Amino acid sequence: MSGDSAEGGCLCGAIRYRVTGDPVAATLCHCGSCRRASGGTNVAWAVFDKSQFEWLSAGPKAYSSSPGIDWLSCPICGSLVGYRRASRPDHMDITTSTLDDPDRYPPTVEIWLEQKIGWETLHPDLPNRQQSSLNDAQA
Ligand SMILES: [Zn+2]
Ligand SMILES: [Zn+2]
């Protein structure tokens, strides 16, 4: 499985990308920044090493919400496809929902419960954390 590649892209198809192998992390994030950036109640992220990732199209538009933090989206349709932070320069975070086969990359932990919307339910089988599972603070 680790040599397999998978593709994904935005709503309009202008942004396409490919990942190879297994993600180094797969999270379901409830933080307020992810919710606002996506418009969703949470965002599932698949975190890949930069060597496992490539754009197949022109690159996305980057919005820097604070120094060293970039939200990557399609300049045409606005889909949030990725996230980069300077403190994790070797990682490319991809929104799991923009993968063509998101079922292949299920989240393994729910994070940022302290910012979760009150009416949103949690996955019964996943561990969860009040903040991030990665070793740095989220935006
Ligand atoms: Zn698009
Ligand atoms: Zn988040």
Description of the structure:
The chain is mostly beta strands and 139 residues long. The chain has a single domain, classed as Metal Binding Protein, Guanine Nucleotide Exchange Factor, Chain A (Beta Complex). It is built from one helix and ten strands. The strands form two sheets. Strands 6-7-8-9-4-3-10 form a seven-stranded mixed sheet. A three-stranded antiparallel sheet has the order 1-2-5, with no helix packed on it. The chain is globular. The C terminus is likely disordered. Bound molecules: zinc ion (2 copies).
Please provide a brief summary of the model.
The protein is mainly beta and 139 residues long. The chain has one domain: Metal Binding Protein, Guanine Nucleotide Exchange Factor, Chain A (Beta Complex).
**Which consecutive residue ranges, at least 5 long each, have pLDDT under 50?**
135-139
User: Average pLDDT, to the nearest integer?
Assistant: 93
Computed structural class = mainly beta
- In CATH, the topology is named Metal Binding Protein, Guanine Nucleotide Exchange Factor, Chain A
Heterogens: zinc ion
Main sheet strand line-up: 6-7-8-9-4-3-10
Distance between the termini: 32 Å
Architecture per CATH nomenclature, i.e. the level-2 architecture: Beta Complex
Q: What count of domains describes the coordinates?
A: 1
Number of strands: 10
* Biggest sheet descriptor: 7 strands, mixed
| Residue share in helix | under 10%
What is the CA-atom radius of gyration, in angstroms? 14 Å
The share of residues in extended strands comes to 35-45%
- Quick one: overall form? globular
